[in-house]
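Researcher: Structure prediction, please.
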Amino acid sequence: MERYPQKPLQFIPRLPEEMLVRAEQFRALMQQRRSVRTFSSRPVPRELIEQAILTAGTAPSGAHREPWHFVAVNDPKIQSEIRKAAEKEERESYDRRMSKEWLDALHPLGTDWNKPFLESAPWLVICFAKNIGDDGRKNYYVQESCGIACGLFIAAIHNLGLVTLTHTPSPMRFLGDILERPKHERAYILFPVGYPAEGVMVPDLKRKSQEQLVTWQERD
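Model: Predicted structure follows.
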């Protein structure tokens, strides 16, 4: 197999002072990001969702196999079908599958099996992980690659001025059935996307401090 052709890297050198300002501005932007479960009915143009998905597609991937496929839904009938199937699995999980320790961990967030955001959000965007590529060959580091792509998607949505939530009902096979995806694709994360409802409240969470987040091992 031939190697990819090479081209010059498009790189913009910046002074450390400028780099620090850019880093602080981006961190401040992302510090405001929160998971939202209550959405406005205000419509979101398809072009915005397209840009966020294209940004997700810039993620690095194992052997550049790009083992992801995104399905964007704003058909109310399909959203209703997804909600019904998701709540069936979620109710089973909350009632029987989840351990007491898991339920105790979720309790401060106030979540339960009821998922109205699957219908109220203007868009549902589902990332599917692909074990097999479009060329029929195996993909590598699928979980890691999709995780990075989804992280970029979340950042892109926040940068747009929209909100989202990572929703992972387990199991999620129903999404592949409803959306008629190939058998070698597996739903990875479901993102409701839209504007927050007016006056929406979120838990007053605190994020880890730098001391908790990182260990430095520097040279003398």
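Model: The beta strands are 68-73, 123-130, 163-164, 185-194.
Researcher: Thanks, that helps.
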